[in-house]
Amino acid sequence: MNVRIISLVLFLPFLSTAAAETAPEWKLADAIEAAELFAAPGTKRKVSLKESKAWTDQLKASGLKLGEWAYLKAVALSCQGEGEPAQQALADALDGRSSLPLHAAQHGVVLTRVGAALLNARLKEGSHADLSSIVRTLLEVGTRSPDQLTRQFGRRFAKTDNPALREVRAEIAGMFSAHAGLSRAEKDVCIGRLYGKGGPSPEVEASVGPERITGRNIDRARFLILGGGGSYRNNQISLERNVEFLHRLQKEKGFDAAGNHILFADGKADGKDLQMVNPDKVPELNSLLAAILGTTTGLNLSYRSHHLDRVSGASTQANIQKYFDGLKLEKGEQLVINFTGHGGRGEKDHAQNTSLYLWENKSIRVKDFCKMLDKLPAEHPVMVLMVQCYSGGFANLIFKEGQADKGLADHPRCGFFATVHDRIAAGCTPSINEDEYYEYTSYFMTALGGRTRTGKTIDLPDYDEDGRVCFAEAHAYALIESRTLDVSIKTSDVLLRKYSRISRDPGMVSTQSYAVLLDRAGSCEKAVLEGLSKRTGLSGDRRVEAARVISSALAKRRKAADEEKKKVSRELVEKRKALSEAVREQWPELGNPWHPRVFEILSREKKALVKVIKDHPSYADFISGRAAYKKHQNRFYGYEAEWASLQRFIRTAENVAYEANLGRVASKDVQEHYKRLVELERGTLEAKPVETAQP
User: Span 478-487, mean pLDDT?
Assistant: First the structure.
């Protein structure tokens, strides 16, 4: 540095107006060098922050351009260790860079020196203020590579015991992990420096990952189709239509329906075992009297026998057991099981041991179902699709006897389930309009076949672009497209939650950074995260945390809507009572629907009945109360559906982190089992064409 600059450094706090007027003639690089020396530790005279600010303000007033004085101010303040003011100065410098008489490389050098000085100051004082944004700026400038940056400050991060700095370290690691210009190996090196010896290694990165696991076509399969309710009271027509939908899919995929074994409702019996909406409108008087004197339940329903062909028998436990006892699979065959019906909660001391409801109001639990599956030879894989309430309990079929504490089963099994073990599922409707079927089966099979129930084509959810739609992709499509209260899961989710963990420990992936999760996610998970982000309005790098906050708020709103619904329901009881008493005063025979005069009253005095009801003072309040009840009910289910969408997003994000960490916390056997499980889940229904003999 020349004598003029040294003199300037010694007397800068006392700059005269005349001296300031010469400032624009300096070279910018010299001015920056002077500023660094002026404020640097170790100088004979420590310059105060007040003097430093006064000096940079004089530089501004002297005629330097915006970008020039902002750079100088950033240098001076950063060397003084002033976080927020220096950050603002750095932002001003970025905004004013276009006005500087410097080329791009010089811009980068200056910004890097500013940022590095500020970064060192923050680390020295053990503070986490602005660290992430400083590193982001340095990466944006691009004059220092991630490798150079981590060499500069990685050691300080690796040694820190400060929880706040650990959190910042995770955010910075996320930036490196998401950096488009780095290879996986380079990312490992950079992140490893941040964490020291505990940093991620190439071995961890290569341990698992769905993009390295390919499924196989299920070209030879047997289908066990179970369905129907416990009785005619809850065997809705949608369950029958689900089986028919599967039949159409099988045909399109080249499977012969003769290979199906169907156990549905009452089987081959002629009884009326199916419930459906009566297309005829219910007369007004019947609706009024049902609401006032009796119940509206089932008022618009009719019943018939199911129309399914080739049914082998009723859906009873004895018939299911008989099927497994006699099943002999040929070499290369896989068993596909589809249950379309209702389910029950788990036991008090074993919540995961949920149940399938079978005909005659019987049931079978996870543990007993797994015992039946154990009868199959281990070389024949099993894929299960279940859509009942509490179906997630059956995801435990990957464990011995369906119990996670007994370890993984020896048999290769995978499955997809409409919801988790402790929630009801959408669907099971008596409506005959299939456009109104919004449940897991509809989404899953639509994805596999590329067409909805009513024949409308969709864009195939081939998220990995390999020319086929596998089961895992169909499941992902359901997670994205469903507007229901379902929180759907698959078997690999259950394995990850049993054997992996999420932590901010060194080398572990958490859900703090969306960029990190997206970088680690497979094609299906990436599609779900991005699709649900768009649908729910989530954005930013901390969107998983935001989803949890919004979920909590929705849960409170849902509870409030439910309380309002209950309040209106209690008020309706009183209004209903007043109307009921008015009707019975004039027609006491209506107190018993089997009274001989009831038919006569309904046919000959219906106009008088309607008039008495509608003219009563409580009638208007009763009608408005029913509307209010419906409103609060719709609000409740609306909040429930929004909450479920966010839960699907959160669980997917967590699954990505669980998978990324599996190699660190699970044994090699578990990792290998996980790979085989993912391979099964990535299977595809595609029968081989039948070869014909050549003439």
Answer: 96
